[in-house]
Structure formats: structure tokens, C-alpha cells
Amino acid sequence: MTHTSGGAESVEATKEATKKAGAERAKRHRHVNPAFQKKFVPPMLKRAKTRAPMVVNDDVDDDARDGGENEPKSDLAKLLQMFDGDVDAAIDMVDRNGGEAKKPIALNVKAKPVVHVPFATRPAPQSAPEATTSAPAPRVSALGAAAAPAQMSTDVCVTFPSYNYAGSEFPRAQTFATVREYQAYFVSAICENLMLRLRDVSSTMHKLRTDGAQSAQKPDLLAKILWHRYKLRYFTQCEISSRKWTDKVDNTEKTCVRLMVKDFKSIKGPKPYAKGDFWIVSTEPWFEVKPLQEIGDRHRAPWLGVVECKWHGMDNEGRMEVQLLGPRPPRLRDNATIHVYAMHTSLNAFSETDELENILSLSAGRPSPLIDSILGKPPPKELEEEAELYLKDADIGVAPLQRSFKLNDDQARAVSGALASATSASHLPVRLIHGPFGSGKTHTIAAFVTKAAELLKSSNGRIMIAAHTNVAVDRVLQSLLEAGFTDFIRVGSVRKIDPVILPYSLHVKTGKGPSQAKELEAMLKETTSVRKRAILQKEIETLSSGKVGMRKALLKKCSVVGVTCYSSSHEDLKNMEFSVVVLDECSQMTEPSSLLPVVQSRCKTLVAVGDPLQLSPVVADVPESNRSKANVTRNPLKRTLFSRLSDAGHSKVTLRTQYRLHPALSAVPNKCFYDGVLIDGIGASDRTSLIRLTTGGVLSPIVWWDTSGFDTKEGQSKLNVEEATRVSGVVRCLLDNDVPAGRIGVIAFYAAQASCVSNKLAHAPHGVAREMTNVNDDEDFESFLPSDVQVSTVDAFQGQEKDVIIITLCGAPLSTFTNAERLNVALTRAKRHLIVVGAAAVAQKSNVSAWVETLKRARSTPNGYIPLSYETNAVLQKWSPAVKESVEHDDVLLSPSSEIAPSPRFLNDRETLLELGFDQKRYWDFYCAVMRGVNYDHKQSRATVTESPLRPFIQRVFPRVFDANGDIEWSKAKVKRALSIDVIGLLRRFIEYEHGSEWGTLDKLIDAFEDREEFERDPTGFGWMCVQEAEGAVAVGDCGTGPTTRSDDADEDSWNT
Hints:
- Helix 21 links the parallel strand 17 (about 655-660) and strand 18 (about 680).
- By secondary structure, the protein is α/β, with parallel strands linked by helices.
């Protein structure tokens, strides 16, 4: 009886469970089946037609958002809004949370969530609405939009931002509890940075939309406007398709998404599309997609997204495989195709893709040996007694390293500590080397690598040298070559490797483009160096013989491998492990970039070198919110791995001795940026002046040339024409006074100002490049062309140095863009002379200590401050080449009054010219003919030179002027240089020696042999230029190299006040 009763209860329970399950299935069926979705709307989701549409405004404060009248009333409605109308996802979320309204719900349903948020918090929408109904006023940032807290996840999601998108707020994380937390933080940070970089495109589209012509302009017209105004390629005939297929290798089902651009053939010229390019794709031609205002058919809703190209460009039909970086288009089901509009942006995320894959690989397979350091855990403590053991070691101690590698004390201590970690003599896994400007970072790295390779050879330990740029990697490898170390292989693109390193390189080719042989041939045509031409020629022969393949075998055996951070993940380096990684320029890389070689190599020791007081990584710049606290940031990628490891307490050695700047120049950055800890390793005698002043003395190391003029905005940039004109005059004067173009640099803080200066130098009258003698024969000649002077922004000058640096102040002192790091770089590039051109009053008003200190030192130095009232030519005419300390050549020509006897070579040439009856008139005629022929292509003047009685003399003294047939090759630059520099220079010196130095000036020659008014009307323009120079209207030497102007005007003996 009991058994029967129990059976009845069991049957009843089964029936009840079956009935409940059936009801549940019916409920789900209605929401899952598309047919039901179109016909059935749950009553709780129905809304009155008279009610105002719901507003989605991410700018509303949390308090205002909680009490908003336009919020959906039901929990499911809120979830539907959260998931952009995705009913399936919303129902699933309700089921998983048991219908509890306020229970924390994870926003990410595709992956295990890392951060949970309250139910009422929503993720940022795809694109902020252009216009909404009235809503409570949000707290806004400098960009006009409020920044929401970042929603961190390991899912890669990049959406097209609104034009006023201000970014999300991230915590300034120092440590991470788990690998997944670290991954979510930096995956979200990379995606956020990419979105910020897309704001320019969004602003462009918003500007066009708000011009009032949206309704009148068709997509075809929009495409023309975007290209001609903004150089953005916009396509109207595009399709995006999704196909499912089964991979036969691993028998898994995969989905392939392709974008087809049908009208790409209408574009003429090159099509620079590459792997990693970002495309903006939308079902709407104006890329204006507002969030869903009410519940409806989500499959018909407009869509806007970002895709990344996975191929190295399009195929012949305009197809390419892409990856969706945001929500999938609702209409794009499996094996479906939809029509879209697409725009190609200049943003390429090829490197970011590598960074994301690298970060996500941290949780796969064996953990990295340095995972604790990466997560920010404090390093183990090292007692002073333990450090003394290796610092005083007979092999890796400070004293033997100083003797072997000529290191100073700081350099030797840094190398000793790094060697101790590499050889397990110390249990510290990370060593940081803080190397300020000119402190010998490269020499220190080379000393460490040389010694470490020797010590690790017995244990088969290997070293990877990585840096953010190819130049930095090659600089270290060249230092190794100079030390006689050749057991290394450089891995990289042949075009980006320095020719000196090519014989030790393994060429890799990525994407479409010319073959390696063609690349080498192109480089051979471009280079002017005899040494580099020989190296390139030999490399071409090696490539054609197939011997380059032997280097692949050496890659597995060599002690040292040099790569950029992104090349460290190359296929040829897969599964290779390295004991030590040396990161140069670590303070210029983002942390995900620094992590690439560290994770890929599975290294046990990291030696990071950098200067956090100089330029930080180049990332999207977004102002921090005024209400942001010190522990919150809008772009966490600005903080580098070097800084985070330093803050965590890892061992750091500062190289305090600088060997670059004149002591007077180093005093400013030492005081303003380095707290006075730096020491000068050179004296004033090692950095003598390049310019002598005719009024007495020399050009000061610091010169401030006060200038008026107005800064003019050009888009987001600025320019100052008056400053640019004065900088151009200073550059030409330096060139005329024997300072080569390669030793001069111009730094501007704005790209528009750099472009303005470059244009003035490109169109400036000039001589031609001069021959030079170089014992290493590294270059055939030093250029004295104004256009060959490097003019760049501060960022492009990082890591470089010049004897003379000219800074154009335009917009810098009062700009937030000119931060301390950028200013530090600008002030630490000059070895001998720093010339600042700009308004002194503006710099003084800025209250920026570095500007104020520079101006103060210029004012207190003789000849260091040039007042605003001084005329440009009056100042520059007092500049002349500095007297050489020693006579290096035996062909120096001197006047009869000189105490030093003329060289035998000159005396022999003098006899020949006297026999020819060469006098002042013949010199003037020959000079005019040469200059017209060289600079103005004047045929009659060229014939005069060819038929001159001086021809046999020139052919004997300067045979390179003539070809094998005895003709002058006027088209060749070397011939022009020889005629205008060497030949004219010799003849001028002869005239000055025989008749006095005044016969070498334009004033004397024009007055003696020309009518000024008639000469000024010379149809070639040469006469006008000579007269202008003689009258002091332009800078010295503007009519070409030759006779120099000497003014008799009696200005003040000094411009110092």
C-alpha cells in the first residue's frame, strides 16, 4: 500500500514537471521564433503612443538617470534597451538572474565577466544621438561630453564614437589580482584608444551633417567632398556578407565575414589598403545611427560599425575578409548579404591586433616567468650585503667592467646589476636603467649584451634586444659592431634596416609589395654613401646566390637577436625562448607594446632602459576631466611599463653623467626636470662655438632672439610667419658660414609651423652642396642646401642630436600641448648652440620654469639676447665662421699679411693664374658666368665657361668637372658643387691674396664693373639678387656661394642688453 501511494505521488510530480517544462518551452518558443517576434509583444513592453520617446543620453548624471521620466518601466524593457533590442539576450538575462530586478547583472554575455555593475547602469551606446529631447544637463568635460566609467572586458569591442566622445574613465591601476583582471584592463584600454583615434572621422561627418546640406547631398557627392576636403575614401556600392563553413582540419564550424567594395575601381591612382586598416561601415549613408527609441523589429534597425581588414588589401573584385569589432548587424544572418556604405580611414590597427593576441595569450599554456612582475607584485627584497657580492665581483663587478668597457661608475653599476640578474647571481628579475639625454644608454646596453652573451654561452642562454623603432635597434647593434661583437641576427623588413646591419640580418616580408631584391636595388639608387653602396651591392649578390637562407639557421644558434617589439612575434621567432630581454626606449612604448617581446620570448630577466621624463608613448590625447581624481585616467596607455615597474619598487639605476650638451645648455633641464642630479661629462672646451662675431667674441651657447608676430590657427595647428622668416634667415646664415645642413636642426611645436619653415627653406636662394673629406668615407659630401636641414616637430626629434638647434616658439609657452616631457626633449637636442626664436614676453608670462630659466640665462650671457628692435641682416652680417684651432689641410689659402706661409700647392696655382693674366675683371666675369650657368641654366653663360682661357687650368686642378670626352657635365650635382664652391673659391682667394680682401666682396665688384640699375635688370634674376645682397636687403650669401658681403655700417658692438 505504501508502495502504491508513493508511486502515485511520483507520477503526479512527473506530470507537474512535464507541464511546467512545456509552458517554459512555449514561452521561449514565442520569443526565439522570428515569426512570433513580429506578431507578439509582451504586454509589459507595450507603451502608450502619446508618451514621449525614450531618450538615451549617456551624458546624464547617475542621479538624474535614476530619476528620469523616459526610462523604461519594466526590467525586461531596460534589458532590451541595454542589448539594442535583442530579445533573445534579454530573456536569457532575466532567466539567469531569477527575475530579481536589482541583482547585479553582468553586461558581457559572451565571455565570463570580470567587472559586474548594478542593474541600472548601462554600457556606452554605439554612437551618441545627434539630437534628443530635453534632458537634465550633464556634467561635461572639455570636449563637451561626459566620461562614463569604463566597462572592462576581455572581449574586443571598438565602436564608432560620437563627434564629442570624451572617453571613459579608467582607474590608475598599479597592481592586478589576477591575469584575467590584467587582460580585461588592457584589452579595454586598447579598444578605448582606438575609439578615441576615430573621433576625427566622426567629427568630419558631424561637420558635414550640421552644414545644412545633408538633405541636398547625395552619397555620390558626399564621396567627392570627403576625398577632396579630407582625403577620406567613401564608397556607396558595398556589400557585407557572412558565410558559415566547416574547417576540415579540426572539424569545427567557422564564420567568415567579407566586405565587398564594388566601386573601388573608380578610384584612380594607388590604393594604399593594407592589413589592419579600419573601415567604417553602415546601412545609413551619413553614418548617423541613433539608439533605438522604441521596441520594434530589430532586423530593420539601422546599423553602424567598425571592421578591420584581415587581408593585405582587396582582391581584383574588391573583396576582403574583415573582422567585426562591435555588435553584429541584426540583418546579417548566416549565409546572408546586406548592402552598406563604407569609408576607409587612415587608422591601421595591425600592431594593436598583435598586442591584443599577446595579452590574451597570458592565460593560455604555461604562465610567463615574469607574470608576477607584470601583475605589479612587489619585487623580492635585496639586502645591501647581497648587492655588494656582485658589485665587487672579480668578473661582473664595477671595477672590472669599468676597465673592460670604459664605463663610468653609474654605467658600471647598472651593467653589474643586470649581469647578476641574468646569471642568477641575484634573485631580482627586473632591472631598470634610467638614462637621461646624452648619458650613454646605447654604450651601456652594448657593454651589458657583450658580457652577458659571454657568460650565458655555456648554458645556451640567449638575449633579445627590442625597441619601439628600427633606428633604436640598429643603433644598439651598430654599437656592438664597433665593439667587435658580431654574433647576432637582425630580424626585420629589409627596407627598414640600416644598410650597415644588412649583412647580419634576416629579411622578412609582410604583405604585398616589391621583392627583397627590388627593395635593395631601390636602396642602392637612393644612397649617396660609398660605404653603404658597397654593402648593398654585396647584399644583392648574396641574395641572388641564395646564401641569405643560411642566416635562418644562424637565427636558432646566435647569442643575440635584434627586433622591434612588433617583429618579436614574427613567425620565424615562434617557439624560441630567450633568457634575457633588453627593452630600449621602454619609456616611449605603451605597456601592451612592451609586453610583446617579454611574453613571446618567455624571458626570465628583463632589462628595461628609458627616460620617463622625456616623451611618453604616442596615443590618442584626451584631456582629463576636471572632476577626475588622481586615481582616474581617460587613457591608461599613457602610463608605461617602465613607470609602473618603477613605482612597484623594482631596482633602478640613474645614469647621471651627460656627454651631449654644453654645460651652459645642460644647466636648464638639469634644474627644471632632473632636480639637479645630473653631472656634466664634458666641458665648454669640448663644445666650442661654431660662429665668431665680427664685433668680438663668439656666439653664445644660449641665444634668445626676441620676435613679434602673431600665431595663426590652421585647423588644430598653429603657425607664425614672422618667426618662420627669421628662422629661415638664421639657417641660411649658418650654412653660409660653413655649418653643414646635417649639423643644424629646427624644432617646432606645431606641424603647421614646421611646414611653414620647411617651405621657406625649400624656396630660399642657396648655393650647392660642398665636397667634404671623411676618413671613414661614410658620405661623399656634406650638404649645405637649406632644404636638407631637418625641420620637425619635437616628437620626431626624440633620440636625435645636432650641433645647432633652432626652436621656433610659435604657440608653445601658453599651450597645454607643450608639456614638461615635450619641452625637455626640445631643450636637450643641441650640443653647442640653442637658438630660441620667439616672443620673450610671452615666455615670461607663461610662468613655465624651463622657458623662464632659458630666457634668464640668455639675458645674463654676453651676446645671448637679441632685442626685438634689431634688424635681422644687421645681426646676421656680424656672424662669421669660427677660427679653426689647427690647420688640417695643406691647401689653405692665406693673404700676404698672414704670418703663416701659403701652402706650396697654392703658390703653384698662383703662378699659373699670374701667367694667364687673371685679374679682378676676369674674375668677376667668370664668377657671373658660373653662377648663371649653375643656378639659372643660362646657356650663353655655360658657353662662356666652356670657352674660357681658364679651362686647361681647371681641367688640371679639378678634373672631376669634366667627363671622359672633356665636356662639362652641367646636369650633375657634383659638377655644380665643384664649379661654384671649389673653382670659384680658389679664384676668389687668389684675387684677395693679390689685390686685397675687399675685392672679394660684392660691393666692390659691382661698383667697379657694373651699373647697379642696369645690372639689377638682369633677365636671369642673378643681378637683382646680387644687388639686394650687396645692399643688405637679404641674408648674407643669398645670391649663391661666392663673394661675400661686408657691411661698413657701424652697429652696436653687441646686441646684448
